[in-house]
Design goal:
heterodimer, A: 326 residues, alpha/beta, Four Helix Bundle (Hemerythrin (Met), subunit A), Rossmann fold, seven-stranded mixed β-sheet, three-stranded antiparallel β-sheet, B: 331 residues, 12 strands, globular
């Protein structure tokens, strides 16, 4: 089966984390499926096209098996393709339209979230954020435009230093930002009014899976009675978790933590690099989505409202679906 | 520039190592003194350097106070330079032995709290923890050490290597992953810069966050701190000043240039673990509840009311006895 080179490139970029962040990979996945649909050169029968699209869908989702936004995006587009009963052209158009709609909505979601989120920030606020989240950064920038922000603490976020991206983006929008090492979050927490973070995945019980360290930031905030806001587009809510599936935490390579020669000169010394951790709902004050600000316990409402179609599929299949035959 | 330097690897001395280095410097600088008046200057310059370099180290401050008392006492006994110098050198030897004795006692007691097959989380790099790990090498307890890289400085890499060389099983993690792994941990072992009168512990930044996460997961936290780290001043309400650094603690200049011009970093070096998150403080005199520290202070420093003497008053007294200016250090 011939896969367009740009699709393979996108898959590689997601895998190597050159494209990262839940929103970006969802949009990249949509883009890849759209390109695949446009550049399909196979036989013009429905089942060949479906097979081809399923192959691409599996290729893309296998790059980051635990990234919910990626799976939701692919699931959404594939469900639209499968719903078509016409010929290849109709299916192709269904894929393109679904991808365009998803990309458009994903971008609009950020602006709505930042609008809702900024309202929740009080005047004269000191905000702490962890890692880099487009939704969180947009929220902070929006609040700063409203004159509400006094100072932002941004954690470095080892091992990848995504905090430096956050610092850069906030500085570009003239937000006063100070970087701190990850270990200093409790030290500064007494000064902080709100914690604003993004999310990788929101589970059906309102737990938030996000960059490693988020849960201890939330714990330190909880201890100091600082409010924690999670900004999350609804495509980050995981329908799988509604049927009791656990979200697997991706363990990444040691070479992201220390240089390769250090690893080689210390054989047997283990370096553990979990990418994400789980923040329990009791440490979260609100989840800000593009359809409104909700308590984490209401996550299931969002799932039913926005991803009801996917829930149905999961309930019927009772396991993570593969996209047709490969 | 090495890859590690780019990451911000720049481990400093543990407080114990700092004290031992300080003792060597004391004996070196005092053995060079050729007139009585120079005693004041030598003492004052060491005091002001420690205040600038390591104001948090209760051990270094206690050591300097003892040294000041020793010099004043010697001068009062016999205003003779060689007599004072001899006493200072003896003092240095005595303190060296004290530190070594404390280290082995603390590690012996701490090792008893480690049961077979336990997973131990530690942060930063503490000599007491190193010695405890050494102590149990021969005991066949097969512990697993979870070591945080401990930014700023990343001295966790040095500790991980030391433990690995001893033959221990070591798992290196980023500081952010402490809570993630806490449910696998049986015991948290931490070192200390200073022990306050209320049982609060000043330690490497991040220690309080780890203790909080341990408390949440009902994992026991033991702080290894010999009595030479008791901060007597805190009994009189003095606050321990916590120094902070800037971006230099996180990266070399070569990396800063890749960041925006107005990039700013705030880098606390130490933080305070509240006594509620500490299950026990292991000193060479035994394992104490943090709430019992005032008792320990009384044990070590004699009955109430405690007599305390400040470094400033020692410097003044010394200058009265031998002449020479206080804070007159120009080199």
């Amino acid at each position: 089966m011939e896969i367009p080179i740009r699709v393979v490139q996108i898959a590689d970029d997601i895998k190597a984390m050159r494209i990262r962040g839940a929103g970006k990979i969802a949009r990249a996945a949509a883009e890849a499926l759209k390109i695949a649909a446009i550049e399909y050169r196979g036989p013009l029968d429905e089942s060949s096209f479906k097979k081809y699209m399923a192959y691409v869908a599996n290729l893309i989702t296998s790059t980051r098996p635990t990234a919910v936004s990626l799976h939701n995006a692919v699931l959404y587009i594939m469900s639209k393709v499968r719903a078509v009963s016409g010929g290849v052209d109709d299916m192709r158009n269904a894929a393109i339209n679904a991808a365009d709609k998803l990309i458009q909505e994903s971008i609009e979601a950020i602006s709505r979230i930042s609008e809702f989120g900024a309202k929740r920030i009080k005047n004269g606020a000191v905000v702490l954020t962890h890692c880099h989240s487009t939704a969180a950064v947009s929220t902070i920038i929006n609040a700063n435009r409203m004159g509400k922000i006094v100072k932002v603490y941004s954690t470095e976020t080892r091992p990848f230093f995504q905090g430096r991206i956050t610092a850069r983006q906030l500085l570009e929008s003239s937000v006063p930002v100070i970087q701190i090492p990850d270990s200093a979050v409790r030290y500064v927490m007494n000064e902080v009014d709100h914690v604003v973070v993004g999310a990788d995945t929101v589970t059906s019980n309102g737990a938030v899976i996000n960059k490693i360290g988020t849960s201890q930031v939330a714990l330190a905030a909880h201890e100091a009675r600082v409010r924690v806001f999670v900004t999350a587009e609804t495509y980050k809510f995981s329908p799988m978790t509604a049927i009791g599936e656990l979200v697997p935490i991706e363990m990444r390579g040691a070479e992201e933590v220390v240089p390769l020669d250090w690893i080689k000169s210390h054989p047997g010394l283990e370096i553990l690099n979990p990418s994400f951790d789980v923040t329990p709902p009791e440490y979260i004050d609100a989840i800000v989505t593009e359809i409104g600000v909700i308590p984490p316990q209401a996550a299931i409402n969002v799932l039913v409202e926005r991803l009801g179609w996917a829930l149905e599929e999961f309930l019927q299949s009772e396991h993570r679906p593969v996209f047709g035959e490969v | 520039m090495s890859e590690l330097t780019k990451l911000g690897f720049s481990p400093g001395l543990t407080s114990t190592e700092y004290s031992l280095k300080l003792l060597s410097e004391v004996s070196e600088s005092f053995s060079k003194i050729s007139e009585l008046r120079a005693l004041t200057k030598a003492y004052s310059s060491i005091v002001s350097r420690v205040k600038a370099e390591r104001p948090t180290s209760a051990q270094a401050i206690n050591l300097l106070k003892d040294l000041g008392v020793e010099i004043v006492k010697s001068m009062e006994e016999k205003a003779d330079l060689s007599y004072v110098k001899k006493n200072v050198l003896e003092f240095v030897e005595k303190w060296r032995n004290r530190i070594q004795r404390e280290l082995s006692e603390v590690s012996r007691i701490a090792s008893r709290r480690i049961s077979s097959g336990e997973s131990i989380l530690t942060h930063s790099r503490s000599m007491c923890v190193v010695r405890t790990a050494e102590y149990i090498v021969s005991e066949d307890k097969k512990p697993i050490f979870y070591v945080t890289e401990s930014r700023p400085g990343m001295e966790g890499l040095v500790l991980a290597e030391e433990l690995w060389r001893m033959g221990h099983r070591v798992k290196l993690i980023v500081d952010s992953a402490a809570r993630f792994f806490m449910k696998d941990i049986d015991l948290v072992l931490l070192g200390a810069e200073a022990v306050a009168a209320n049982g609060a512990i000043v330690s490497k930044v991040g220690s309080s966050l780890i203790s909080l996460a341990a408390n949440e997961a009902r994992v026991r936290v033991f702080v290894l701190a010999p009595t030479s780290k008791l901060s007597i001043e805190t009994l009189f309400g003095e606050l321990v000043q916590l120094p902070e650094g800037d971006w230099r603690r996180l990266m070399p200049p070569g990396v800063l240039y890749t960041l925006p011009e107005n990039y700013r970093a705030r880098v606390p070096l130490y933080d305070v673990i509240p006594p509620d998150y500490i299950d026990g403080i292991v000193s060479e005199k035994g394992l104490f509840a943090p709430q019992a520290i005032s008792y320990l202070i009384k044990e070590v420093h004699g009955g109430w009311p405690l007599k305390t003497i400040s470094l400033e008053s020692l410097e003044k007294e010394l200058s009265k006895l031998v002449g020479g200016e206080v804070y007159g250090d120009t080199d």
